[in-house]
Write a structure and sequence with these properties.
Keywords: Endonuclease, Hydrolase, Nuclease, Nucleotidyltransferase, RNA-directed DNA polymerase, Transferase. This is Gypsy retrotransposon integrase-like protein 1. This protein has 531 residues and is of the alpha/beta class. It folds into four domains: 51 residues; 146 residues, Cathepsin D, subunit A, domain 1 (Beta Barrel); 113 residues, Endonuclease III, domain 1 (Orthogonal Bundle), CATH 1.10.340.70; 131 residues, Ribonuclease H-like superfamily/Ribonuclease H (Nucleotidyltransferase, domain 5, 2-Layer Sandwich). The chain has a six-stranded mixed barrel with strand order 1-2-7-3-6-5. A six-stranded mixed sheet has the order 9-8-10-11-12-13. Strands 16-15-14-17-18 form a five-stranded mixed sheet, with helices on both faces. The chain is elongated.
């Protein structure tokens, strides 16, 4: 490319490089030898490599059938990965991303590249809103699709969702909510409606009974009952007639009972713990049983199920009331499931309250979390208790004193604005001294006068105020051989005795000098006598 490349040319080179990296190894080598400069040249090189590969391999049949792969529902513009085959292939077989002889192409209904049905795809008879149709079971699809003659799209419906092919073909199709029935059960599901679908119904993994229906459709017929029984023993870990996904999924039975008209509502009515809830129902199947207004919280009944309507996290929510026989399943899903993460009782209860409710929920969640064996084995051990350190007994008065400043206060007639408070830790004797200014010089002067009356202490405990941290105070303590002790920053509890007396002193002065606030320094001796 001559001169500086344009933005479009740079973008095209980036796209070509990404596509080359995504090609299988055999195709990547053949295409790289041609050094395509544009996307059209890249497509031609891939087609030539594919044709050469097909002639080289011949017309051999694939060694094993591959599963049908359906594009998953995804946001527009996002490509989905190619699905894997149904079982492990023999040694020496190509990877799923490589082409085999006569390959089964990945397929999306309606994609212009895929108009023929794959060979060997599993099929089953299902009912869509009560009408029977033959359905193609697609284990690689995250959505279910139907033809327009099965479910004509409504003109007033605006619901749509995107479907994406593995080749990147994305389209928006109309969506309808229908009830699909088959051998495993009946569940409502949202399906897409497509005109050019090669089959009447394409059933995806979003239908809850898909795994059971797929297992029944793909199980080979064998004349030897004992041999089939042994194979079933190795593949199924659950009860007879159930797939592993049903027996291992804790939510399967509850979901089937709630959405499929099972015994969940009957369990609610038979639970003795919920009798008072049924007696307080305000709305029964849309009809008011109690006169309005219905204050929150209250109980309602819809589709034979009991709900609790309450204010939760700033919005009105309808929570399903769980009977006593089903609370164990909810607790396991909210706490012991790998997606739950074994959180504490508070987080587990908060997660449950987003969807469910029952009387005594908090106590039951707390008991369940405390009895969880995994949490007991992996919870951190509490730290060993700190040994008690006995406080030293001070037997000599004024050997250890605490000192602090109170103020600024209203300026008195004598010009005092602060109080220097000194408390003896041996006798708890307080000595408040009024100050005009809270400077280190004034504090040192008052301390020297105080020491001349009671003696020089061994240490002084103060906070880290500016006057106490000054060089003058350090020189005074060094001259008198007094040890300076300082409290931690923002920890007044260290000098708790002095701080508590400050509170008492200010409260007494506020009451004594309520009429004339300029004589509080005159009232100090009288207040000290009261202390």
């Amino acid at each position: 490319m001559d001169g500086d490349p344009t933005a479009a040319q740079v973008m095209e080179r980036v796209v070509i490089d990404c596509l080359l990296r995504a090609l299988p190894r055999v195709h990547r080598q053949a295409v790289a030898m041609r050094n395509p400069g544009t996307t059209l040249e890249l497509v031609e090189a891939v087609e030539l490599a594919e044709a050469a590969r097909s002639r080289e391999v011949g017309e051999r049949a694939p060694p094993f059938p591959r599963r049908v792969v359906q594009g998953q529902r995804a946001p527009k513009g996002i490509l989905q990965p190619i699905g894997r085959p149904t079982g492990p292939g023999p040694r020496g077989e190509p990877m799923p991303t490589e082409h085999t002889s006569n390959p089964v192409r990945t397929w999306l209904a309606g994609c212009i590249l895929h108009q023929n049905l794959p060979v060997g795809a599993p099929e089953a008879m299902v009912k869509v809103n009560g009408h029977p149709f033959k359905a193609l079971l697609d284990s690689g699809s995250a959505v279910s699709l139907v033809q327009t003659h099965v479910l004509p799209p409504r003109s007033d419906s605006k619901a749509q969702f995107p479907i994406t092919c593995v080749h990147g073909d994305t389209r928006q199709v109309p969506a309808r909510r229908v009830t699909i029935s088959a051998a495993p059960g009946s569940w409502p599901v949202e399906v897409g409606i497509m005109r050019d679908l090669p089959v009447p119904v394409l059933l995806g993994r979003d239908w809850p009974g898909f795994e059971a229906l797929l297992a029944a459709a793909t199980q080979p017929a064998s004349p030897g009952g004992a041999r089939r029984g042994r194979r079933t023993q190795h593949t199924d870990s659950g009860r007879d007639g159930e797939s592993p996904s049903q027996t291992n999924n804790l939510f399967y039975d509850v979901y089937q009972q709630v959405m499929g008209g099972g015994s969940f509502g009957q369990a609610q009515r038979e639970d003795d713990r919920l009798k008072h809830c049924w007696a307080q129902v305000c709305t029964l199947e849309g009809k008011d049983v109690r006169p309005k207004p219905h204050l929150l919280p209250h109980f309602i009944v819809e589709n034979g199920l009991l709900f609790w309507v309450a204010q939760w996290r700033g919005e009105e929510k309808r929570l399903l009331v769980v009977p006593r026989s089903k609370t164990e399943v909810v607790l396991q899903l909210a706490h012991t499931h790998p997606l739950a993460g074994h959180l504490g009782a508070a987080n587990t209860a908060q997660r449950i309250r987003d969807r469910f409710h029952w009387p005594g929920l908090d106590a039951e969640v707390k008991q369940f979390c405390q009895a969880c064996p995994v949490c007991q084995k992996t919870s951190p051990k509490p730290p060993p208790p700190t040994p008690l350190i006995p406080l030293p007994i001070i037997g000599v008065p004024f050997k250890h004193i605490g000192m602090d400043l109170v103020g600024p206060l209203p300026k008195s007639a004598w010009g005092h604005e602060h109080i220097l408070v000194i408390v003896d830790y041996a006798t708890r004797y307080p000595e408040p001294l009024p100050l005009r200014k809270a400077t280190a010089k004034n504090i040192a002067h008052e301390l020297f006068l105080f020491f001349s009356r009671v003696g020089i202490p061994a240490d002084i405990l103060t906070d880290q105020g500016t006057p106490f941290m000054s060089r003058l105070m350090a020189d005074l303590c060094r001259l008198l051989r007094v040890k300076q002790l300082r409290t931690s920053v923002y920890q007044p509890e260290t000098d708790g005795l002095t701080e508590r007396f400050n509170k008492t002193l200010k409260q007494m002065l506020r009451r004594v000098a309520a009429e004339d606030k300029r004589d509080w320094d005159v009232m100090l001796p009288y207040v000290l006598f009261g202390v």
